[in-house]
Specification:
It is a single chain. The protein has 449 residues and is an all-alpha fold. It has 18 helices and no strands. It has a single domain, classed as MFS general substrate transporter like domains (Growth Hormone, Chain: A, Up-down Bundle), CATH 1.20.1250.20. Helix 3 packs across helix 5 and helix 8 crosses helix 16. It is globular, with a radius of gyration of 22 Å. The two termini are 41 Å apart.
Length: 449
């Protein structure tokens, strides 16, 4: 008898279904909007140092206000979407986002750092709400087996917004010189942002969202076919799922590393890198021209201007966006947790190089951090939501609350070291990436018993 041929491997499920396509487009656009809002805060960090004469450590209150709002809004957003559904949760997030943007105008007119932080806090409450709602929403817009790819793809689109933040901020806010207390560019920029975000919210209010299956639809107990869903979480409380608890811990340390890296990127460029246009750096000159300036690395020449460093920050975020697109593809062949562990190790090595401030080598390593960082947030999120059934909405809120790491770490840990040496502050994220590695290597596993 001839040996039986092994069965053909099952084809990867599609990213989504046709009926969800319009909804998916709107939800993915939310990722772009909060990418813009988050990285714009890192531009403001440097601008407030210059215009309002805020120290490096105190300017990190920008990150504290932004990411602290995620912690504050995590649970309320979860309760709101559980009670009123995903679409109204999105509208709440967009409303807070637009309100915070418009509040930036009177705060900038008063040139008051505390008032600016309050406006950013309201804006970031909108960002935190969108993030808490969008992840479980995305999880239900297609086959559960493709949720990792769907979330990572959406974070790749988030990269477009993240890249746009420093570019737009560099052009509107950091370009040229500004007199003390001159925040007129901030008023113009956030008026535009508030108008755009409010308009998107108005459009989304008229979108008809198709019904999702029971595991993803707040308040339901049966699937679209009328059958009870398989709920592996039915006999457990949320915190009895170790993979979820460890996802919260990993996300706390992951966002701490991200917040610190981004908060002091522009400072690193202006402190250590020098300006020199010319043929010796022709390849980088072409990239710099595309972004608006050019850069070189010859000791003793004038250091990078603020806006040029912001353009390089944007260039680093292009790497993050590309990393997420690549990660979406690779997850068809490589387990997400393995990609996560590999990326964490890579960034531990790069942080060591950044801390040595070896000119272009270290600055290149700093730019490269975002490429490997790219897949960490979405993979931790998707692994943490696995098989949580009825707990999924609340679990999303708790994972979002882990973003508070980006509020605490830059201000109270990296900021204190950065006041003495920005380069040496980059030793500290290595601890964070070690925690992420342990999660990807071991603690991601769903315990079914």
């Amino acid at each position: 008898m001839l040996p039986t041929a092994p069965p053909a491997p099952a084809a990867a499920p599609p990213l989504t279904e046709r009926r969800y396509l319009l909804t998916l487009v709107f939800v993915v656009s939310l990722f772009m909007l909060w990418g813009l809002g988050v990285t714009m805060a890192d531009v403001l960090n440097k601008h407030f140092q210059q215009v309002l004469h805020v120290s490096k450590a105190n300017s990190a209150y920008v990150q504290a206000a932004t990411f602290g709002a995620y912690f504050v809004m995590g649970l309320p957003a979860g309760w709101f979407m559980k009670r009123f559904g995903y679409q109204k949760g999105v509208l709440l997030g967009l409303g807070l986002y637009a309100a915070g943007a418009f509040l930036m105008v009177p705060a900038a007119s008063a040139a008051s750092f505390p008032l600016l932080l309050m406006a950013l806090f309201v804006l970031a409450c909108g960002l935190g709400t969108l993030e808490a709602v969008a992840h479980p929403f995305l999880d239900g817009l297609g086959d559960p087996a493709s949720s990792d790819r769907r979330i990572t793809f959406s974070h790749a689109i988030n990269g477009i917004g993240a890249v746009s933040g420093p570019l737009i901020g560099g052009y509107f806010v950091l370009r040229g010189t500004h007199a003390a207390g001159d925040l007129s560019s901030v008023k113009v920029l956030y008026t535009i942002i508030g108008t755009v975000v409010g308009s998107i919210g108005l459009l989304f209010a008229f979108v008809k969202v198709p019904p999702l299956n029971a595991e993803h639809t707040p308040g339901t107990a049966t699937s679209e076919t009328g059958e009870a869903p398989t709920d592996l979480a039915a006999d457990k409380s949320l915190f009895q799922h170790p993979h979820f608890v460890w996802a919260c811990v990993a996300q706390l340390f992951n966002t701490a590393a991200q917040g610190g890296t981004w908060a002091f990127f522009i400072n690193y460029g202006t402190d250590y890198m020098a300006l020199k246009p010319g043929p010796a750096i022709h390849g980088f000159w072409q990239v710099g021209t595309l972004l608006g300036r050019t850069v070189g690395l010859v000791p003793g020449l004038p250091h990078l201007a603020n806006d040029v460093a912001a353009y390089f920050f944007s260039l680093s975020l292009v790497g993050m966006m590309l990393g997420r697109f690549l990660g979406t593809y690779l997850m068809q062949f490589i387990a997400p947790n393995r990609l996560l562990a590999f990326a964490a190790v890579a960034n531990m090595v790069l942080c060591l190089v950044v801390a040595q401030h070896w000119g272009w080598v270290s600055f290149g390593a700093l730019i490269g951090l975002n490429f490997f960082f790219s897949v960490m947030f979405p993979i931790i999120y998707s692994l943490g939501l696995k098989d949580l059934g009825r707990h999924k909405q609340l679990a999303s809120s708790f994972i979002v609350m882990g973003v508070v790491g980006a509020a605490l770490f830059p201000r109270f840990v990296m900021g204190a070291v950065a006041n003495q040496s920005v380069a040496h502050a980059y030793y500290l994220p290595i601890i964070c990436y070690a925690v992420v590695f342990v999660y990807g290597a071991k603690f991601y596993k769903v315990v079914r018993s």
